[in-house]
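Below is a concrete protein record.
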Amino acid sequence: MDGLIKNFKDDEKDLIKKNIGYTYIIDLKEGKFYFFDDLSDGDVIALDTLWNVYILAHDPFKVKNIFSKLEFVEMLKNGNFKEEVLKKYNAF
């Protein structure tokens, strides 16, 4: 985890560590992603190596960028990240 968040400010590192319980690599032809959270039916929230936020859907297979790193950090600070992801997911 520490290697993944080395380019964040200290307060952002703490915020991310608090909000990401565990992660693992999801290696797809579209790139390398890091698991962030489950959605439903096998779909997940994932982050790329630049910490952009994606929805990875499996049926049908889709990789959709939904937020930038800046938006991700701001929503974590505001406490509305999961709510905003679910809005995007429901419109997906």
User: Anything to note?
Assistant: DSSP finds three helices and five strands in the chain. Helices lie at 10-19, 69-78, 81-90. The longest strand covers residues 31-38. The chain has a mean pLDDT of 86.
